Amino acid sequence: IGRVTHDLMRIKGSDGAPWRPLFREAEPGGDALGARAFVLRAAGEGAARAPVALGSLDVVTVERRLVAAGLAEVAALGYRPETLVIGATHTHSGPGGYSQQRLSELAGTDHYDPRVFDALRTATVAAIRQAHASAVPDTLDYRVQEDRDYFGGPFLVRNRRAKDPFDVDRRIAFLGGMRGGVVNCAIHPVVYRRRNMQWRRDVPGGIAVAWDEYVEQPYSLAFLQGATADVTPNTTRVSPPEGVRILGERVAWRLDE
Description:
This protein is of the alpha/beta class. It is built from six helices and seven strands, in the order αββαβααβββαβα. The protein has helices at about 1-10, 65-75, 100-110, 115-135, 205-215, 240-255, and strands at about 35-40, 50-55, 85-90, 140-145, 170-175, 180-185, 220-225. The strands form two sheets. The protein has a four-stranded mixed beta sheet, with helices on one face. A three-stranded mixed beta sheet has the order 1-2-3, covered by helices on one side.
């Protein structure tokens, strides 16, 4: 596996860009990557119900080992395996090196580096603890919309078919309060491709920016990718930054209906 992945990481296209640019030093000028968490907890000290944390990391995938490592550090706050969900924004422009799953290493994250894993674990735990400590009484807002335009066609993606049995989750869901929330969206949230050598949050970053503008204040928004989400974003003939902005505004617009 080591020799194979090294060989794959060296492959470049005719434009000179690497085919698998995940495990590399990013060029300056990109986005600030990190972890975000949205916490639900019962009011009062010693509440009987366990708190719930929904978090996301700006990486391509999250494995169970990382979730277990995070849980070990926040279990004292009352979190359990069934109440801690950590997902990935699925950006293709984030770091690699954190996974020990062979398929993940081969497909894109490259060789395991414990320093990267520890950085992701630390960021995850810090986000959960910060959200837990700053929780305030709030009324939750829950919204669900279908991915469709005024004519009934797909709005966010280009290759979604009306009767595709493998593409059953067409919903955009939002759960949140005054200060933070989480969006679940069945889309492959990747506009920046392999020629990009900067850190990018990609479509989830665009959604977060659009939501900040919608609520007119900084907002902590986590992102979870839908279960059947490898569908192509609906951006054509525009630059990646413009495509990210367009998709972010479309998600916010649909949730605002």
